[in-house]
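User: Here's a chain of 99 residues. Predict its fold as tokens.
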Amino acid sequence: MKEQDKDKEFWNYVDLGNNMPPQTADNMLIAYSFFKQATVGDNTQERPTESSNVVETFKHDAWKRLEGMPKAEAKQKYINVIKGLLSEQESAKKTASTK
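Assistant: Prediction complete.
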């Protein structure tokens, strides 16, 4: 697949991800970290030091763990995460409709 096509697919899944119902904190952190690695690259920011800002610290740490991952790989992993979440959501709908 051409890089331009991969970018288009990635941004399509970003839109899908942004319009999904709320997800668990873990799933959101995973998606966030792959998104940041895919769009920015390695996290070069300082780790938040305020103990009251736990969410920003978690986000920073999740992204930092991906250091060195190529942007193209992070894009594919983001797509895979969103596909998985959409599949889970669809399965849950089917299960609910058969009850």
